[in-house]
Amino acid sequence: MTTIKDIAKVAGVSVTTVSRALNGYPDVSEKTRQKIIEIAKQLNYSPNTLARSLVMNKSKTIGLLVSGMNHSAIKDNFTFEVLTGINDYIAKTDYDLILFSTNSTKQREKTYSQLCRERRVDGVILQGIKTDDPYLTEVVESDIPCVLIDIPIQSDKVGYVTTDNVLGAKKAVQHLIELGHENIAMMNGHDYAFVSKQRLEGFRQAMEEANVAINDDWIVNGEFSEEVAEKKALELFSKHREITAIFCASDLMALGVVKALKQMGLSVPDDVSVVGYDDILLASYVSPSLTTIAQNRFQMGYEAASMLVEMLEGKEAKVVMLRTQLIVRESTKKNQLLKGRM
Amino acid sequence: MTTIKDIAKVAGVSVTTVSRALNGYPDVSEKTRQKIIEIAKQLNYSPNTLARSLVMNKSKTIGLLVSGMNHSAIKDNFTFEVLTGINDYIAKTDYDLILFSTNSTKQREKTYSQLCRERRVDGVILQGIKTDDPYLTEVVESDIPCVLIDIPIQSDKVGYVTTDNVLGAKKAVQHLIELGHENIAMMNGHDYAFVSKQRLEGFRQAMEEANVAINDDWIVNGEFSEEVAEKKALELFSKHREITAIFCASDLMALGVVKALKQMGLSVPDDVSVVGYDDILLASYVSPSLTTIAQNRFQMGYEAASMLVEMLEGKEAKVVMLRTQLIVRESTKKNQLLKGRM
DNA sequence: TTCTTCCTCCAAAACGTTTCGGATTCTTTC
DNA sequence: GAAAGAATCCGAAACGTTTTGGAGGAAGAA
């Protein structure tokens, strides 16, 4: 493997000159620069990033700490879409991505900052970690530039990108209310996700502003899982047949809810309206297709990468909040009971 | 950032001893080892991988060169599932993954081996590149350990993992033949994919062994794209209404074909049977659900990672061929014309 | 002519590790 | 008590870069 020394030797100059020639410094004559470049090509030279990073104290790599890259994430490929967005931006820069594979066991062994410092990443993007994750506190404490996805924590060195979950949920619930529903339930995720809290808040706001009573028994947690949501929905609807609409904090859970309702012989949307969140691919393919809140996950990744790179170039950490969009499909409908009453 | 020197200073020993203590060499007394470990903890030391890699001449990173991580890959998330498998295995080792973001422009700028040598990766996994990609020739020429996914090239340092595409396609077509179909078309991918060639070969074998005539006009390329396949299917079926079954080299194209048939007022499976390949998530959700050949993409990634790590530990490059499985759903049916004839 | 300035170039230090070859001390053996 | 051997430790080189501070010479200014 040819080094800068080899080039220096055959060019008859010092390694300093080679380095400076190759890096475009002005204090080397054009003649020798051309000679050096020529020789470098001939010797098939490529610089050793490790050595460079070591001395420059920056590695031109950004770490990607995702949790939720597992077998079960295929239906809801949030992670992948975000990753695609990140990759898309990074491809235009001279950074490379390093993927920290954090299964749960490894996570316990090495701390967040250990991971980052060992590999000397210049910055990190975090996605999919829960609010009780020990990494989270480390992130703010450590001084490594970092951008979070869907986690509203900000400091000097950490920014985040998210969507307006409160407004998104509000739009979903308002849609139900406009359809004449009054007995509205909510299938939330779990308490360890910021988005859950925010979507619950949006739910409350929409209900209160429309003067619709909130029944706390009708708010249950589906753990963002299709199966759990299905089970919980079975319980919920067998106890409370009066519910005519349900807002789910994810499409995946909405799928589970629809399954449960079908099992009980209830029709979606004739008996119960269901609205999801995410607009996953399946949402438009299942039957009935899902009314849902769309968020552009690709863009989230793209913005996150963009922000991080900007931060590495000296700009300040900031907050990016993306728009969501209500997409009305087949799973929601005018309240049938209401029609009867009128 | 604390270094080995800092530890040496407070422990009152040399850096050599610190290094050897931390790395478990036997020529340091248990007493000083404990002392050093204790101090390292207190100083919150984490080793600098860059420095280590530089001197040891291996980086404990493996490169991931995927093409096809783009916006349009979301339906058919082959790449993501493979990636998940790779990540799953890698998480159990002390390697990290570095994702080479190769959009087409960057690809032209830097050669394959340049990418690898700059980052000093120990090995590479390649996925999703076409047969005419310049990287491919470089791979075999370079002496970097490498495993390919779905590309049957082997040498001293390069192995591959794939599925038995010939057999898979054969099973699909045999299924159609068993259903009584004789006028069978094929929607292939494109000429720059190995799997296309192999699946075509499987198609031919099945037809020949069953003594069913092959009509070369009925074999068209859909570029692995839903839209292109739709267009091509429209052309094909408007010219040749006698076709009663079609084998598609991917589920995505099968979706396009089904769309085209619906547009033409033809029923799947009553008028035309369609079988796909891949068993993507959508296959079981669309209506009619797709009969298809399932391949375990997660396992492909897992096996690839496993093979590469083994190679890095001295074992030989090898070939892994995984099984496929015919999954019969709603898009295939007994040939109706045949029924009439009987 | 001499002094200053600019253009090229270079030696050496630094980054944080690992490892080779030896040096010291301690224990054992005769 | 001395020689031998084992157990511990260490100095220095090496990995491939970048960068600092200056050296040498040529050109311009006085």
UniProtKB/TrEMBL annotation, chains A, B:
InterPro entries: HTH_LacI, LacI/GalR-like_sensor, Lambda_DNA-bd_dom_sf, Peripla_BP_I. The keyword Transcription applies. It comes from the Bacteria. One of its GO terms (molecular function) is transcription cis-regulatory region binding. PROSITE patterns: HTH_LACI_1, HTH_LACI_2. Residues 2-56 form the HTH lacI-type domain. Keywords: DNA-binding, Transcription, Transcription regulation. Pfam families: LacI (PF00356), Peripla_BP_3 (PF13377). Gene3D superfamilies: 3.40.50.2300, lambda repressor-like DNA-binding domains. This is LacI family transcriptional regulator. It comes from Thermolongibacillus altinsuensis. The lineage of its organism: Bacteria, Bacillati, Bacillota, Bacilli, Bacillales.
